[in-house]
Amino acid sequence: MTGRIILTCGEPAGIGPELAGKALASGVDFAFLGDPAHLPPDTAWSEIQTPDAPVPAGHLPVLRHDFPAPATPGRPEPANAAATIAVIARAVDLVMCGRAAAICTLPINKQALIEGAGFGYPGHTEYLAHLAGGVDVAMMLASTTVTPPCRVVPATIHMALERVPDALTPDLLERTIRITHAAMIRDFGIADPRIAIAGLNPHAGEGGTMGRQEIDWIAPLILRLQGEGLTLIGPLPADTMFHAPARARYDAAICAYHDQALIPIKTLDFAGGVNVTLGLPFVRTSPDHGTGFDIAGKGIADPASTIAALRMARDMATARG
Ligand SMILES: NC(=O)C1=CN([C@@H]2O[C@H](COP(=O)(O)OP(=O)(O)OC[C@H]3O[C@@H](n4cnc5c(N)ncnc54)[C@H](O)[C@@H]3O)[C@@H](O)[C@H]2O)C=CC1
Ligand SMILES: NCC(=O)COP(=O)(O)O
């Protein structure tokens, strides 16, 4: 691993800038990319001109990215939306040209970026895939403090629930399984990953009486990929696949849609959950939570998930060499 990890500021009106200072406790060598004027006033920071420049002990290294407006806690400023997006793109430039080891992104408010700057993506995941050249990615949320671990990958991500049945195609599910399988080997060091596939419908369709996707194509797809040697189980009823003995049977779960995946991980390990984009040519992690507008500016945000995300980014970058 060469270079620091770049921690992007995310939504400056949220808890991100506060978490950046608190994350120094992680022991991970990272630099904050954002506007230092948005940091809490008691943050000890030093500006750096290059990502790996030294700073005094205990100081947050800051790669300055000036924003047009101050940040008011809990109230996103439309004038800052374009700069929030530009910070993400600048971090990707740094990691793509080898000047940073990985990126870790603090949360953005999707609505603020869409309304303030016409952001054309529903989240980091899709934007990063675009910045990396249009690669195929998947979003994984991984626990760090529960045993057996909970790792979930929603096949469809940020879309209205009514669109899910049409969007969940055999092609999408197959690509999600393959991306997850490869990432479990490369980034998580699991030689023969066991992957569970959730059904779409209650009780995985209850033999076709509550939906036919499982019978018509999910089970046949699983059978075909098992024939290639992938260790897959499913389709499983989603309501009974996340308690501890069930999780012991697999290393990662592919889910049909966002909340099917994120409710179990955020219930089991909200503080330790990490969001990882699988399939990128560089390492990207993020805390599992959002912008926390209700607590922004109060100094009470818990940095545990950001610290876990920085440590996971460091470990993944080290493993990739
Ligand atoms: N990677 C990203 O950029 C993500 C962005 N978001 C965005 O965040 C915004 C707000 O989403 P919400 O659903 O309200 O979720 P949220 O995670 O921001 O907040 C949910 C609840 O958890 C609390 N919370 C969150 N992080 C915390 C922390 N570190 N310490 C203590 N308490 C914490 C909040 O105060 C709130 O009560 C949305 O615009 C969403 O799109 C959400 C998830 C990830
Ligand atoms: N709910 C998870 C989430 O919103 C993460 O999105 P992303 O910005 O990491 O794509």
Strand and helix map with partners:
Elements: E1 5-8, H1 16-22, E2 30-34, E3 45-48, E4 60-64, H2 81-96, E5 102-105, H3 110-117, H4 124-131, E6 138-142, E7 151-154, H5 164-167, H6 170-186, E8 194-198, H7 213-227, E9 231-236, H8 244-247, E10 252-255, H9 258-269, E11 274-278, E12 284-287, H10 304-320
Parallel strand pairs: 1-2, 1-5, 2-4, 3-4, 5-12, 7-10, 8-9, 8-10
Antiparallel strand pairs: 6-7, 6-11, 11-12
Bound molecules: 1,4-dihydronicotinamide adenine dinucleotide and the ligand NCC(=O)COP(=O)(O)O.
GO molecular function, one term: 4-hydroxythreonine-4-phosphate dehydrogenase activity
Keywords: Cobalt, Cytoplasm, Magnesium, Metal-binding, NAD, NADP, Oxidoreductase, Pyridoxine biosynthesis, Zinc
Organism: Paracoccus albicereus
Helical content band? 25-40%
Bound molecules: 1,4-dihydronicotinamide adenine dinucleotide, ligand LD2JLWAY
- Gyration radius, to the nearest Å? 20 Å
CATH 4th-level superfamily of the largest domain: Isopropylmalate Dehydrogenase
Strand order of the largest sheet: 3-4-2-1-5-12-11-6-7-10-8-9
**Estimated structural class:** alpha/beta
What fold name stands as the CATH topology of the largest domain?
Answer: Isopropylmalate Dehydrogenase
CATH level-1 class of the largest domain: Alpha Beta
Give the averaged pLDDT, no decimals.
Answer: 97
Give helix and strand order, one letter per element, not per position: EHEEEHEHHEEHHEHEHEHEEH
Q: So, CATH architecture of the largest domain?
A: 3-Layer(aba) Sandwich
Which segments are poorly predicted (pLDDT under 50) over 5 or more consecutive residues? Answer: none
What would you call the quaternary organization? single chain
Residue share in β-strands: 15-25%
Shape: globular
| Number of structural units classed as domains | 2
What is the terminal-to-terminal distance?
A: 5 Å
Biggest β-sheet strands, sense, barrel: 12 strands, mixed
InterPro entries: PdxA, PdxA_fam
Keywords: Cobalt, Cytoplasm, Magnesium, Metal-binding, NAD, NADP, Oxidoreductase, Pyridoxine biosynthesis, Zinc
EC number: 1.1.1.262
Function: Catalyzes the NAD(P)-dependent oxidation of 4-(phosphooxy)-L-threonine (HTP) into 2-amino-3-oxo-4-(phosphooxy)butyric acid which spontaneously decarboxylates to form 3-amino-2-oxopropyl phosphate (AHAP).
